[in-house]
Amino acid sequence: MLVVMFSPLMLFCSCLVVGGSLLSISSSTWSGVWVGMELNLFSFLILMNGGSFFDLEPLIKYFVVQSLGSVVFIFSVVYVSFFLETWMMILLVLGLFLKIGIFPFHSWVPSVVVKSRWIVGGLVLTWQKLAPLVFLMLISSSVVFISVLFMVVIGGAGGLNQSSVRGMASYSSFVHMSWMMVGLLYSFFVFLFYFFIYSMSLFLFFLGCSNSGKSSLGSQSFSLLGLIGVLMMMGVPPFLGFLSKLLVMLSSPTFALVVCLLGSVVSLKFYTSFFYSMFLNSGLYGIEKELSVVSLSLVLNVLGLFLIVVVLFL
C-alpha cells in the first residue's frame, strides 16, 4: 500500500526535503545551492528508511550515488571559482548528471525505484530531480540536446524489457525528463507545468497500482487510478498530459521535438502492455474506494481539455 507515515519525524523530514530543494533553486550562491541539496538528501534518506529493512538496499545505492555527485559538484565549484578552468565546468555538469540520473549515470534509477516503496520511488522520479535539473539547464545548454537524445533512446528501449510496474515507470521517466529538459531550455513556465502534470500523473499511477497490489504487468488486478495515471503519462487528449506536451511543442525547435516524439511513440508499447495486463488478465479490484479520487482526476482533465481549446483558438 502507498502509506505515508505521519509521525513528527517524517513530517519534519518531508518539510526539509521540500525546503532543501527550494533553498537550492532560490539561492544566489553556489554554496547555498550545495547546502540546499545536502539538506534535501539527508532528509530524504530518513524518509527512504521509514523504519523498514525493505528499503535498506536502495537507500545505500541512493546515498552512494548522491554523495559521489555532491563531492564532484562541490569540488568543481571550488576550482571553478578560483581557477575558471573549462574542464572543471565539465566536472560540475557530470556531478549533476550523477544526481539526476542522466546518461551515462542512469542505471541507478531503475534499480533504486524497483526496490523502494511506492511513495519513495515516486519522489525519486519527480521531486528529487527538480533542483539539479534546473541548475543543469542554467550551467550548460549545449549538452542538453545530446542528453535528450540518449535519454529518449534509453527510456524507450529499456522500458520494452520491463515486467515490473516500477521498472516501466523508471524508464518512462527518462522519456518524460527529455520533454522537461527541452521545455526548460525555452520556457521555465512550460517546464514547471510539465513537471507538475507528470508528477500528478505518476503519483496517481503509483497510488492505483499500490491500492490494487499491482507490482508487475502480469498481476491480476484492476485500478481506475492506475489507468487514469497512465493515460495522463501517455499524453493522449483530453488528458492534461497532452496539454503539457502541446506547450513544449509550441515553444521548442523542430529537431528536439522529433527526438522526444520518437521516444514517446516507442514508450506507447509498454503502456499498451500495461493496458493489456489490466483489462485482459484482471478483475475489478477495489473500484468503489477509488471513485472519489477518479472523479477529481476526471474534473482536472476536463479542465485540461478546456485549456487546450483556449490555447489553440484564442
Automatic annotation (TrEMBL):
Keywords: Electron transport, Membrane, Mitochondrion, Mitochondrion inner membrane, NAD, Respiratory chain, Signal, Translocase, Transmembrane, Transmembrane helix, Transport, Ubiquinone. The chain crosses the membrane at residues 29-47, 59-82, 88-109, 130-157, 177-210, 222-243, 255-279, 291-313. The keyword Transcription regulation does not apply. GO terms for biological process: mitochondrial electron transport, NADH to ubiquinone. Its EC number is 7.1.1.2. One of its GO terms (cellular component) is mitochondrial inner membrane. InterPro entries: Complex_I_Subunit_2, ND/Mrp_TM. Residues 85-263 form the NADH:quinone oxidoreductase/Mrp antiporter transmembrane domain. Residues 1-19 form the signal peptide. It catalyses: a ubiquinone + NADH + 5 H(+)(in) = a ubiquinol + NAD(+) + 4 H(+)(out). It is found in: Mitochondrion inner membrane. GO terms for molecular function: NADH dehydrogenase (ubiquinone) activity. It is a multi-pass membrane protein. It comes from the Eukaryota. Belongs to the complex I subunit 2 family. PANTHER family: NADH-UBIQUINONE OXIDOREDUCTASE CHAIN 2 (PTHR46552). This is NADH-ubiquinone oxidoreductase chain 2. It comes from Arcuatula senhousia (Asian date mussel).
